[in-house]
Amino acid sequence: MAFWWPLIVLGVTYLICRCLLMLIPPNVPSIDVDASDVMDDGSQTKENSYIYIPRKGGVPQSDKVRCYEPATMKYLGHFPALTPDEVKEHVEQARKAQKIWGKSTFRQRRQFLRILLKYIIEHQELICEVSSRDTGKTMIDASLGEIMTTCEKITWLLAKGERWLKPEYRCTGRSMLHKRARVEFYPLGVIGAIVSWNYPFHNILNPILAAVFSGNGVVIKVSEHASWSGCFYLRIIRTALAAVGAPDNLVHVITGFAETGQALVSSVDKVIFVGSPGVGKMIMRNAAETLVPVTLELGGKDAFIVCEDVDVSHVANIAVRAALQSSGQNCAGAERFYVHKDIYSAFLAQIVKIVKSISVVRPATGWKYDMGAICMQGHAEKLQSLVNDALDKGAKIAVRGSFGNLGEDAVDQFFPPTVLTEVNHTMRIMQEEAFGPILPIMKFSSDEEAVNLANDSNYGLGCAVFSGNQRRAREIASQLHCGVAAINDFASTYMCQSLPFGGVKHSGFGRFAGVEGLRACCLVKSVVEDRWWPFVKTIIPPPLRYPVADNAFQFQESLVEALYGLNIWDRLHAVINVVKFLSDSNSANARNMRRHRYRTS
């Protein structure tokens, strides 16, 4: 016991010191970012506050990207649609800055993250308001999807990022026991990302954080539907980088349409794309011209499976949030609900009750509301066409929310939360990504049926499985063909930023987030060197030296068996043969040398 006491005292002392150090606030400077032009203080003149009405059938491409509030159609401004030459200039600027930043220390990179994190925490309302105005989401949805996810990623990088980018030593195997093997991680150069509009702050920060922390430059092409917010968020990032002495032009946000994105793909060292499968295929075709590696996150049609042994009220609340978060405009939103027949009626009743209580209000008209607007012009019409298709094929509307709080001057950018029953897989709503506030609910009778239904999709991003028996839920989830799975929860996998995020099938491939996503921004280099240099070196055995000996193949056979044979006695016998071959070779070499000396004398 006397031996353990000093160790216990040292351990307790260490823990106390760690706790005391946590009480000392870190020295993180504050940054000041000009936000005067993005604040809606009611002082705008008539010239810059008119209602913008895009043409039906989409906005025609031009040399300008026009921005407006989806909830009010109030005009926000315009940004240039960059030409291919202008895009290449941005990439070259980032490339020059990256050569400097690539030599920065992890301490400098962590300080950038701390400064950024401090600004985000102190300016949550500003960041959420800008996102809300540009995409139509509620302030709560913005906080959940923009602030929390980004802060979680930053804190993970602060705690673990350096560890996973340091050289990693690996096993050398039997034939290379005299070597050391490791994997080294170097910046790729310039990472290009083409991101979607649904969470403009996080979708920009997500690739930037991983790329910058791993020593890269970044050029982000923001969606034409969220360019206004994206250009403001760039100010925050650049100001935080400047505060740690990073070179100018390390990070860029560019605006434009398809031509702008195509030029970016052909100019960078890696592409990260978040968007639709159709555009993802175009990205792959363009990337193939220069063999640029790509990571594609192409959305999903996530299954939400509810077994009969759950707390119905508890799961119903999670289900509604999973479907209606940000008005259903989530890459990993729940879009197909499979409920066991024994609790179907009770579950549906709870869903109907919750949906009836949902309030829809325009952003900036109040804090206490549940749903905002649909971001993309014309998307509400697509959602209605999905509902109409389902109704034509036998589905029924169990409940549909109201717009009682919108007012008479509301624009056509809202879609009511809609619950559909008696759906089946012949309906488009069960096959196509809706990206809207629709809950189609279908019965199942057995776990096997639930698995078959969930896997009957072209998409494979995520899933959620609920059961009172956690082992049963894990068993069901293990059979689902998707990239992420939540057990008795929804989307919790994304909040665990140590985990990779991505899907299969039409949901894309490659991963961002987690160790895999961080290292995907790196040139991964395998390195082998002598363990005991210069005392032990690689020597070509005499039978294998050119010109090879007559018994070279027999020697190689014995060497292979000595290293990898399954039977220890066979391996020992092979070792004896190897020694014999080497001895014979040495004897032959000695005889040859004597003959050579005799002839020359």
UniProtKB/TrEMBL annotation:
It comes from the Eukaryota. Residues 61-527 form the Aldehyde dehydrogenase domain. The chain crosses the membrane at residues 7-24. GO terms for molecular function: oxidoreductase activity, acting on the aldehyde or oxo group of donors, NAD or NADP as acceptor. InterPro entries: Ald_DH/histidinol_DH, Ald_DH_C, Ald_DH_CS_CYS, Ald_DH_CS_GLU, Ald_DH_N, Aldehyde_DH_dom. The active site is at E297. Keywords: Membrane, Oxidoreductase, Transmembrane, Transmembrane helix. Belongs to the aldehyde dehydrogenase family. This is Aldehyde dehydrogenase domain-containing protein. It comes from Spirodela intermedia (Intermediate duckweed).
